[in-house]
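This section describes the prediction task in plain terms. A model, or a person checking by hand, is given the sequence of a single protein chain and must write out its three-dimensional structure as a string of tokens. No templates, partner chains or ligands are provided. The sample shown here is typical of the held-out split.
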Amino acid sequence: MKISIGIGSLVGLILALPAMAADEQAIEERIRALVPEVETLAIAETPVPGLMEVQLNNDIIYMSKDGRYLMQGRLIDLETQNDLTDTAKSGLRRERIADLDSADMVSFGPEDAEFELMVFTDTDCGYCRRLHEQIDAYVDEGIRINYLAFPRAGIESATYETMVSVWCASDRQSAMTTAKSGQKPPKAECDNPVEEQYLLGQALGVTGTPALLTPNGDLIPGYVPPGELKKRLQGLADASASSAD
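The expected answer:
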């Protein structure tokens, strides 16, 4: 594809670069003074004049271009009803999950399913158990469920030990079903991703289970019945396709 830029536009871009760089430098200096240990820092413009979007590790905040004012919260375009903050966070989540290995998940449903979800789960969570009781219904709706471990009580808990046994079982699906029915699967130990997945969930903003995550980074918190979930996933897919056009 050949891209042509008029002389006037090119001059405008060149003149804008120093100002934009100065804006970003002012913001970065202020952020690093406030949070010296920050690991990830990315700055981008927003549709609001004078307001910049700042990726601060795994969160999104906003600052004035001079670095004086900071705002936390959601930025919503009332004309389009688009939650710009959620869109930005979805992008962050999408990047974090892009390299996840499906071999480290406990999956139900065919690989060529119409929809695919990563579900942060806790074997002692009531709504997680309710979801799993309907696992066949989700699969029938064309939804592949890929479980990731999120023991809410932490990595020193009994639930954590149960989930390690699930992930280390020779038949993970059967062990997951056993655990979700309130029984203990046979104790097993191995190199496992349970702690890593738990920490990933925290980094992605998961605070409860089940937490449903699309490959595009959309986060759906809580239990959603199979038929309703399919409608929501179709709506997200349609919205993504429309924004790409």
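For orientation: The CA atoms of residues 25 and 67 lie 9 Å apart.
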